[in-house]
Amino acid sequence: MTQMLKAKQETNTPEIEQVAKKEGLETSLIRGKIASGRIVIPKNIKHDIPAIGIGEGLRVKVNANIGLSESKSSIAEEVEKARVAVEAGADAVMDLSIGSKTQETRKAIIKAVNVPIGTVPVYESKDMTEDSIFKAIERHLHDGVDFITVHCGVTKESVEALEKQKRTIPMVSRGGSIIAKYIMDTGEENPLYSNYDYLLELAKQYDATLSLGDGMRPGCIKDATDTPQLKELEILGNLVTRAREANVQTMVEGPGHIPLNEIEENVKMQKRLCQGAPFYVLGPLVTDIGVGWDHLVGAIGGAIAAMHGTDFLCYVTPAEHIGLPEKEDVRQGVIASKIAAHVADLTRGIDIHKDHAMSKARANLEWEKQVDYAIDQSKFSCYALKNRTPCSMCDSYCPIKRLKKE
Amino acid sequence: MTQMLKAKQETNTPEIEQVAKKEGLETSLIRGKIASGRIVIPKNIKHDIPAIGIGEGLRVKVNANIGLSESKSSIAEEVEKARVAVEAGADAVMDLSIGSKTQETRKAIIKAVNVPIGTVPVYESKDMTEDSIFKAIERHLHDGVDFITVHCGVTKESVEALEKQKRTIPMVSRGGSIIAKYIMDTGEENPLYSNYDYLLELAKQYDATLSLGDGMRPGCIKDATDTPQLKELEILGNLVTRAREANVQTMVEGPGHIPLNEIEENVKMQKRLCQGAPFYVLGPLVTDIGVGWDHLVGAIGGAIAAMHGTDFLCYVTPAEHIGLPEKEDVRQGVIASKIAAHVADLTRGIDIHKDHAMSKARANLEWEKQVDYAIDQSKFSCYALKNRTPCSMCDSYCPIKRLKKE
Question: What CATH number should be reported for the domain whose range is B41-347?
Fold first, then answer.
């Protein structure tokens, strides 16, 4: 019995109740949207974590990607990054480890933090046989992974569209490129697509959420919102329907690199083609030349995407396009995305009391209180607090003091 | 003869030609928009600098605020900040110094950098007599200041609206609060408003641009887009018309703190009420609780504001709401705003070749070239360059290598 099936049967699961309470919404509303697939609760039956909801009408959530590369980092470092991410406010963590120690890393991360964990099982499949891929998926689900990215929309059809398109950068998705390469080399169909029903069976066993990957996401502004991307999105829309029929929860992943003025249409298109499925975007990055600042570039895109209906933001760190993020990059990436998420929440009146509390403290020149209300308290060391006086900017020109009624 | 008068007479000044060349647009187009007031070239006749244009259809420009406070910094430090700002890409610098050394600082900054300089002369008026205020303005213009912020819209009428409004924070504008306090205490009208014709006379003598200040800008999300703000904007719209009749160039300043979903309407309202005058915003800040990260919060707001038509972005530094910015805060503030400006330019196809060049370098794994194309080259030290190999994230899983045609 998955969350979705129970919701369809109008059962209030403890998870539904937890989500309703956290979001301050009616249980029946959450239940209804889980039944219809507009909200998901990524939670493997083997993973004992507090439930979080992702989807329509809820607070925008943030994911942090971590994980070993082949040439850098260690399990201990990645576990520490997971902790840093959650401490900074990440709602979920994806372990994207590659190399020889992926399972050990995954288990350590699952143990270390108390949030939903996502992975990309295809990284662990040494060849592209069905057996190898599905064995990897089973291992991940058995270890307690709550949501898995599966690039089911990289099919013969979408790869054909990709080959026709003169993209500047053909693909930037690691998982997607593994599958595309397989299709190009063998002419065979993507096993995750041709065996989608079996994938649904596995997901159902663990009540895992499928995150339908966007292997065709554009990797630069010039390639944004093109035919291969849209072709894949259409395919994913159909796969959402099939998952719902099987009572499996799904999210849909999205770009990537998009110019600012195309974000609204991207979000609306996804919501329409995928019947309101939760939308999970990477960034989006609204310029290609902000390297070193891609957390900020992603926060611009993420805030707008979320204002228009994106439900789940995958952070981007300052190290994006440079190398594997360090601990401090992870922290900065999470905070940047948390700000973007909150900015979008505010546009719906959600959590506006936080901003109001901060502003009242400012109006009263109460500096200690302002620290408490800051998204990132660590940045508030500052002159102001050390000296117990208002900030060093205005001194006797302080407009707040000037207009204070005695 | 001001730039505006010459443009009305269909004379192509060297400044108009410089701007047309930099922007890659027809001279007649620039000239026409200077004549109508939709583009300004802030340049005091006593200040020998390259001309920059601000307004409709041009690249979005960025201003950096620096300047002494009473308790912190030195002239040398502020001069150094001005240099850092311009090196990082600031198109203009405002010297907001307060205290006893304002003129000395101003002269040093004007000498140190080769961009338009703005100031707020009312800071230098020790009392609010007409004589003292206009003497300060004359000193600033005589020193070669290119644009001055004048809070002409803080009038008896808008102050009355402010007193009726139960704002969380009545005012956050230093200059605006000086004038509001004067009106509240004396019941007299704002001298900058009652003597506006004389102000226009002075500006005309030096061909200085008036930046009509937004003393009533909201200081928190809860106070955004309220009656006092709109009342002031209406007044400023009328003052724009009067300035154009006098052949004086004007910009209009705007908020401040605005929720993300109110930015578009704010920009459109300004453009409508002020007949297309260049719009100069501070941020805007789309949440109050991002303290320490206000450069990022301002970049989110700035990118959207500029996409909808804002022409000139005043940076916000990470030190905003904490204290006077240090040199590194200035650098970060400028880069954040430059990214926001570029992101908005991209939505109109401006400078997209920069992103395309970066993407081609990425597609070819050419790391050295990528450094050249980055907005902030200093962040690209990185593993990648040190090792002359692709980045440490994907290693053998690199999607670009995987799909490379041999």
Answer: 3.20.20.540
